[in-house]
Write the structure tokens for this entry.
Amino acid sequence: MTIVEGKYNYYYCTNTELHPNGEVIQIRTTEENPRCPYCGAVMTYGRYWGPLPATQLKEAKGSPYWWVRLGDVAEYERFDTLEEAQKHVEDATGKPFSEAHWINKYGFTLGPYQGLNYISFFEGDEEAQPTEQHLYGKP
């Protein structure tokens, strides 16, 4: 990832033992290398896509489903939990979810799914329409 000066960038902090309710903190800012507002640590650049504490996942979940489409010719598949959707992607690609390269707020490239044949991955309603609330913050 490349930090772009003057543009909004994402940063996160996983010092959950020092945060209210044990939450992962993510912010979007133009400031470079900001400090976590709760624990004071320098935050990590990028969006956080790792596992969340169960309490935070339950509170943040604003949509009923997670949707995954493997490439541009596949059908959308619905999952009830983030963990199920991540496991599906890992099984299909043979790669860990942590290696995903996000190209926009709705998808990423991983394994054989590159370029315009990327993996769609987002929260959405029953018709696979993305919702405004995103688990990891709005871009």
